[in-house]
């Protein structure tokens, strides 16, 4: 019998931890905060433009997710429990942080910023990449370019590179490749060299 009781306790503990790790309860916080501030389901429902029964379901879901009773409900109204008071004290700051995070994430998609790490051959980088950096810096002042001019074959995954500019066929099938230019090989020689070689042949 003692083993059975311990088993039930462990299962309940896992269920409680699963609820606490479920972050979906955050979506109920704005509704909870309005109810806590106004002290009434009906008043909060009118302010939020919701049906009272729908609002009550949000509070029930929040209490279930947190594993705590937030309100004492009676015919005379609502009263916050100790858990409700604690959540009320922190909910406004938490929602403000979430709003700030969303704004910061949105700004990342609007304006390029941070560090762009690129690796390429020295000759190619000096000829084509470096001349473009002043214009890029003027257009995106929050973007910093870390350009690695090297002859070695860099590993973008291991070296945390955003891009590696290479010449030739793409051998690593685990990387995404896009052609940015076509290189042509031309054999050249000076007129004096050609004349000298022609004289040697004759």
Automatic annotation (TrEMBL):
One of its GO terms (biological process) is DNA-templated transcription. GO terms for molecular function: DNA-binding transcription factor activity; sequence-specific DNA binding. It comes from the Bacteria. The keyword Transcription regulation applies. Coiled coil: none annotated. The keyword Transcription regulation applies. Residues 28-81 form the HTH lysR-type domain. It holds the Pfam family HTH_1. Keywords: DNA-binding, Repressor, Transcription, Transcription regulation. Belongs to the LysR transcriptional regulatory family. This is D-malate degradation protein R. It comes from Serratia plymuthica. The lineage of its organism: Bacteria, Pseudomonadati, Pseudomonadota, Gammaproteobacteria, Enterobacterales.
